[in-house]
Task: structure prediction
Amino acid sequence: MPDEINREVRSTDAEPDPVVDSSLSGPLLIAAVVLFLTMVWALYDELFSQRPWKHYQAQFVRLYTAHLQKVGPRAAAAEKEARSSPEFQKIEQLLKKAEDSAAPKVKEIDREVDGIRRQLAAIKSPFQDVRARIAALTYELDHAAGKAARDSIRREVDEIRKRQMSVDLPADGAGAAVSAQNLSFVDLEKRFNELRTREAQLISERATVTNQARELRRTRNEYLSEHMVGLGPQQIEGLLRKMHGFRIEIKQIHIEEAGLVDRCESCHLGISEPLPLTAADMGGNRVFVSHPNRTLLTLHDPIRFGCTPCHNGNGLATASVEGAHGNYKHWLWPLFPKENSEAGCLQCHFTDRVLDQAPVLTRGRDLFELKGCVGCHRHEEFDRESDALTSIRSNIQNLEVQQKESRLEADREVQRGDTAESNDQAQQHYAKAERLRVTSSNMDARIKELDLQAKSVMQDLKKVAPNLKDVRLKLHKNWIPVWLKNPHAFRPGTKMPRFRLVDQEVRALSAFIWQSGWQGPAPAPQPKGDAAHGKELFETRGCMACHSMGEGNNRAGGEFAANLSRLGEKANYDYIVRWVHNPRDRTRPYCPYEKRDLGPEDYARHGLPFSFGLDRSTCPNDGHELQVQNMTVMPSLRLTTEEARDIATYLTSLKHDDAAYPSDVAFMDDRRLAEQGRQLTSRYGCGSCHEIAGLEDAPRIGTELTKEGSKPLEQLDFALLEQKAKAEGWYNHKGFFERKIKDPAFFDTGREKALEDRLRMPNFELSPEDSRALITFLLGSLDSPFRSEFRSIPQQFRYIPTDQQKDLQEGWWLVKKYNCMGCHTVQAGQHSVLSALPRYQDPDWKEQLPPSLVQEGARVNPEWLARFLSNPAMTEKDTSRNGVRTYLKARMPTFSFSPNEIRILVRFFEAAAGQSSPYIPSKLEPLTEPERQMARALFSSPGAPCLRCHLVGEPRHDRSATAPNFLVARERLKPAWTARWMLDPQMISPGTAMPSGLFRREDDRWVSAGPTPGIFSGYRGDHVDLLVRYMFQLTPQEQSALIQRLPATARTDRPPPDETATVAHSR
Amino acid sequence: MIALTAVAALALMPGCGGKKETTPAAGEQPAAGGEVWRPTGDEGTVTGKVSFKGQPPKFPAISMDADAVCAAKHSGPVHPEAVIANPNGTLKNVFVHVKSGLEGKTFAVPTEPVVLDQVGCLYNPHVLGIQARQDLKVVTSDNTTHNIHPLPKINREWNISQPPHADPIIRSFSRPEISVPVKCNQHPWMRAYIHVVSDPFFAVSDDQGSFEIKGLPPGNYEIEALHEHYGAQTQKVTVAPKGSASVEFSYNATQAYRAGSLRMMPALVIPCCGGGGTERGASH
Amino acid sequence: MDWAQLWEIVSLPDNVPIVALAILVPFYAWYGLRQARATDRLTVALEADPQLAKTHHRKVHPYKPGWAREVQVWPYLLRIEFLAAVIVTLVLMIWSITLNAPLEEPANPNHTMNPAKAPWYFVGLQEMLVYFDPWFAGVVLPTLIIIGLMVFPYIDTNPLGIGYYTIRQRKVALAGFGVGFVIWLLLIFIGTFIRGPGWMWFWPGQTWDHTRVIYEVNRNLPDLFGISNPVVGAILGILVIGLFYAGSGWGIHKLVTRSTLDRKIYERTSLLQYLTFQVFAITILVGLPAKMLLRLLFRIKYVLVTPWFNV
Result:
């Protein structure tokens, strides 16, 4: 005991030493045990708690296997069904026959091959052994030094080559007979090569023999896979096997170039399974369902795209669900909520106006444009026109500066030249001056061009809401304050939002609006029209594609434009007549340069008549482009003045009987009120949707929303509700948007604010679905890495549409801008607004629907389309009709598109139909006389009753016609399409009035399905082709000749039926 | 489920002119899944009459002179078949079917087709019932070209030309849908109504205005009568085992045209068939 | 009142050390003092008996008769250290299993967090910035503190109480260090639990509200007396500071020379040592809290304002 040394003899009573006499074994033991336990805990944590996906995967394997075993038999049954079909049996038999026929030859070949194989096997090893040795020796030989050494090796080699060795060869052919033979290497080599070649021959032979059978087998399998819905039993077997050999491990998609690692599939194992899996299939676990939208998945193959680029969330995290979904404070890209998942599309498709795979998102964008959000909130994609205009203007300015500069420079050069020492230098200077002059003149041209552009853009520039400069001409004075107070009370669902105005504000605003309106003389009073006829027109001309009529449940028609149920209470008849006749007809032109409307005086000053229009659109004072149209998307329906009167009469007759309006509106002429009103107007940003005198270029009052979805939460003003939001779990973008849209004043709750500091955003009264759509759009409006160029995402992962893709994209913006889909079917499967109206449910009215534009690009000649779009009447005189389908009650309006827009639209349709541009018409064989005869015969035969429905330009006949005139075909149609159309129109536009099955296949050609006129005897040509050619070479004379041939009764003179009964009602 | 997908597949097949569409082994695979109902022997019958009060509306005669062939087929003026009142004060062409009471049952699809003929540019019958996925056989007895153009809202629309003496067109409707109008674009006056139902228990009132639904399993049913012009009526009925029940429907000429009935808008009056005689009502 | 949020803050993984501090420091302080008291009692007892005092106390650390005067490192020291090692490992493991590293989103210069706080061991310094001129709080004071710690051995002339716990024999040192340590902890706690968004003062249970607005004006001492002239102001400042130093110097002196033992020790120290001690003691142990109180209670920003530095 070492410490006994310095220890004194201790008196018995002395107390024990705290260090020496105490033991630590107890604490040590406890500590050790606890440490061990912690160790175990650590291991468990490492293996399980930190790896929840292991559990998921095990579960998945269990459930999926079970499911597969359940569906397996069904698949088998389905296959049985498919196998039992006659077609299949036929192939099966053929296959059998082929196999049988090939069998003997095959057998024989196989036998021989077998023999050869055995021989080869016998030879192989000795042969290869010797060959190897020789190779080795040869190497030595090459590297040996000195003749002696070489010779000795040579000798050795030869010796080996010659040496006999006994090989026991099986007799070729069948039988196990084996004969030992002595062969030298040379013989072996020879034999070996022979056998090899022979084998090759035989095998190729075999292939040729069995070829037919193989083909049949392939067709059989194809047939099966085609005629089986869902997976076949084999495939299911395969899946089962896969599950059997399933390895529990992290499943990850790694795309190095994009720096993307997604491990989502470690838990979402069913997502890309070939078998569609529902939660029910997988025992109610939503985590295992397969992707709900296969199409999307095929478009964006996860292997190339990963998951998080669309869905957000933390692709790397595997430790917890929250973590992986990124639903925690520090992850900036949390998973999009299920109901807003389409927001993800905007990561790349931010310039796509319409995405057919993302209806909710598209709806959101529609609303953003429709409800006029764009008015106050900038969103990059939505200010195409205004952005274009600004850029053009700035370009012009720059050019002008440059031009001036280069002119001066040129002059300077000339001077330098004049004062140069030597002639050469002078020449150089002069040359330079020349160049500069040329450039500046080029700039002239460019500027002119830009001016034109500017003109186009100004023509395309539209406002969401009506022009308030005409307020005095258009509106009832006492209606305005009522409307301002709460538009939704007067017209539920209107675009005009409800501003939270106190009465004083209402009065001030109305006063200002009223006084800012043009005070000029009212338009000439119009005589009343026929309301009943007006109603008829309103319902049939196509107005209801945009406008809705009726209130509550009776409401029918489009939401694109206002509901006119109570128009009579607000508007002046005279003005409505003018408006209906041509909405673009502007009272006074606006000069964006002088920032005021011009009047006759301005024109008079320059001795000009006060007349303006798209053709006379320059400012008399300074030659700048004027705004000569009302900035509305409403087109001119080319109605006659009478028709306009009728409609106006009808519309203005619509009012509530109990409608009462304040009679005392004297305050609206109060100057001081108006002054307050002006401030309010700019405060509430009225100018951003309406055209108001003095507020034409009022700035936007809302925040830009282009990247709202990725704005830091702290920058969204939750105000006093922040703690509440955090506590209740809606402290996130979605929560903010939801509440803001539902009640824009929400985040003022509890705050003491002066009137002018309150939140300004008005209330749009959106339906839950609509606000969901809008929120989806906002959530998707991200500062996406795929968006901005400087980000690390490589080019190939970006979505940068080119050529036709781009044309499509551009086009959609216009299709939506002008609501083409109100009348037309533009996408297959989309239903126009009109087609949903009760009237058009009637079989006869259905034929009155405007044509479907699916495949329009394939149908019509682009040049024609351009002409048509610029003037749908296809004529200058008598424009009050359709250009092509004169029988339609609905009318293709004149939108007075700018050249730009026409170009875009034409390109759009061409692209949508995948047509190559420019279009080069194919040359058609001219008809021979007999052919013409035959065509005529066929045209007027009961077998091919073309003329029963198609217009021929003969009034009596045309009254019952429901299809265009053949005379237009030549310019309008593309021959290839026409042929396709005649063969099976139902394929191209299902439900069209033109029947299918007019022709039947006769060996290699199409012939009329009906009885063909005798004249055709011996004609071997294709009837469709004949008709197409005839159609494209049809002349008016020819047509009249045709009509003469029509069955007599079709032309018998009858007393014309009483016109009043018909709807085709024209005065 | 397989069957459902099969139906979907059927719906996907392009409407190729003339030839029969392949229905997935009609009969053995019920559309709604579950067991196919088999008669047990104690089925009952529902009989009834559709009485009609008042003067039927006068429709202007159809002028068929757009197509000589049609006109030739008829001696006197032809009137639209919208309302055909039988002399015994009953209404013809009223479609009667079981509206409710058969839920959850699925019925085998009959293999023999329902025939729709075209005689003198009129459909015969004017109103017909058919079971979903049962074959519809369209034949023509006219010497002119027709096209058969059903305008369903749920089922797929098709429109096929049928020249004189052509083979019958055989098609089928995959889904139940009440009142599918059928028209011929070349003879706009031609109109038939096909009622696609999911069970075999339906009938159309005849010249006596009476109808009979046979083989109805015992139970409580809601029977619905549909008329293209006077709309729908329903009645409750109980069928006892092996028993027979009778239902009486009565339409009134003066009764207001009801929303939700078959024709939603006044027909577009087309001159060719608008003029002509407007005298006597269409009662033959 | 928002205790939920307080809990949120307390339970933050980042704040674990501070919470631990709040428990461990008092405990060990108490534990050490307890031992010290025991030793003191022992020494008193030994002193009572001159014989024992000679053998068991003077020149050696006090031990009872019957105790080993010295023990071997092995096993007596090492076993304890081993136990300590095991326990520490234990603690670290449990800590690392239960709490993940508090990682946050990638730093974004356009969007800084509020409040932005230093790691717990620097929060004290950060908090000091509130009370002093940055240059003073960020550079001078820390340096002084470090130097102060460094010079301890050289100004401490007390031969007693080396190698064992005692209060009696080391009152001054103990008190001095104690005060400094407490101040430091205090700063950390204020910085962590009291300072909210905008480094504003939130009492525990008060909600940390980003939008909170408060009205407080901090004035310099001269302004208090309405002195606008900087020179006069500076003179005043220097005067006050001088007085403060003199006053607290005198006070400390009184404390240091209370008991006879203390006086003995005091007599052993040289003037230089004593002055150094005084300077550090006044500046850090008295000056720091004094300035804090001035600021918190009387809203006084600076006492001495010069173009070069402020105090």
Notes: The first strand of chain A starts at residue 165 and ends at 170. The longest helix of chain A spans residues 86-143. Chain A touches chain B through 57 residues (CB under 8 Å). The two ends of chain A are 133 Å apart (CA to CA).
